[in-house]
Amino acid sequence: MIRALAAFVLMATAATAQTVPEPSDYRMDHYRAPVPDQITGGAAIGPEEAHALWQEQSAVFVDVLPQAPKPAKLPKGTIWRDKPRNSIPGAIWLPNVGYGAIADVTADYFRKGLEEATDGDTSRAVVFFCLEDCWMSWNAARRAIEWGYGSVYWLPEGTDGWVLWGYPLERVKPEPGQPVAEGG
Description:
The chain is α/β, with parallel strands linked by helices. The chain has a domain at 39-68 and 83-179: Oxidized Rhodanese, domain 1. It has helices at residues 2-16, 47-56, 104-117, 135-146, 158-164; strands spanning 43-44, 60-63, 85-87, 92-93, 126-129, 152-155, 170-172. A five-stranded parallel sheet has the order 1-6-5-2-4, sandwiched between helices. The chain is globular. It starts with a helix and ends in a 12-residue tail after the last strand.
């Protein structure tokens, strides 16, 4: 019953939503905004399709939700705790790789994470996600397509849509080697 209601709400929302055109380049700002319903060179999928890939273990799942850096110049003795991230079980978390422009060190971190997750097989299916209406995952998927990954899936609804369908989440930590901001 809950899934049927969720499906109805999604269809009703989709029917009234305006179509967002796919940009010709990376999204550079306002990353939490309505997203297009496609990605050239890849495939936009919904939570049910993503769940099928997850159950079959036929794709690598890559979470690109940004992670806030530790503030510079915290007073001595201040305790800093990163905000926890609950993600799709088995996903790798590569934070901050979905910005429109990324530093070379961040691109290297992203490439290395993808290479390790796919065992260097650019034909291996990869699902990129973040949250609903988050351009970070669209940018990351587009970047992977440009790097030659041939089976790229994009989950525009991210973990928000995943949870709406009642699928599980688990706590994840960023993959090692994440670049650290100056002063962080």
